[in-house]
């Protein structure tokens, strides 16, 4: 890695912030802090895609994951009346096997990526403009796009109905 290039420094800073946020997500006892740190980790992944020149993917991560999945997660926390503050019931006694498995998985993925790609340069890949992707989605695939949005809306309403508790007296 050439540290004289500013883009590499930005990558290091964003990657370290993502690692710290991810560690807080899995070690905190506060559900809301975990959700907020997950937002930070996902925002870091969007920033990495911006560094790679994939603005559309970064926008999708922000809209879908941060804008929808985290909101859905927070809806679930609020609907089920989970303890929002620090929870003493969460078990952190067996975190070392999980850490070993996570580090092993990272080592295997990183090693296989380096072994497969090495220092190869990828050539001949034409960049796809975001406007072309938007045109394809909203002209050619507008009906499936709308159908998926209605399916997701129905799933959200169904989740709320199932999670709602009715009083037996009413």
CATH topology title: Four Helix Bundle (Hemerythrin (Met), subunit A)
Counting DSSP H or I runs of 4 or more residues, the number of helices is 6
Terminal Cα separation, in Å? 66 Å
> Per CATH, which architecture?
Up-down Bundle
Which structural category do the helix and sheet elements fall into? mainly alpha
Q: Helix and strand succession? A: HHHHHH
The outline comes out as flat
Share of helical residues: over 70%
Fraction of residues in β-strands: under 5%
What is the average of the pLDDT values? 81
Parts with pLDDT < 50 across at least 5 consecutive residues: none
CATH first level: which class? Mainly Alpha
**Largest sheet, described in full?**
none
CATH superfamily: NADH-ubiquinone/plastoquinone oxidoreductase chain 6, subunit NuoJ
How many domains in all?
Answer: 1
What's the short story on this structure?
The chain is mainly alpha-helical.
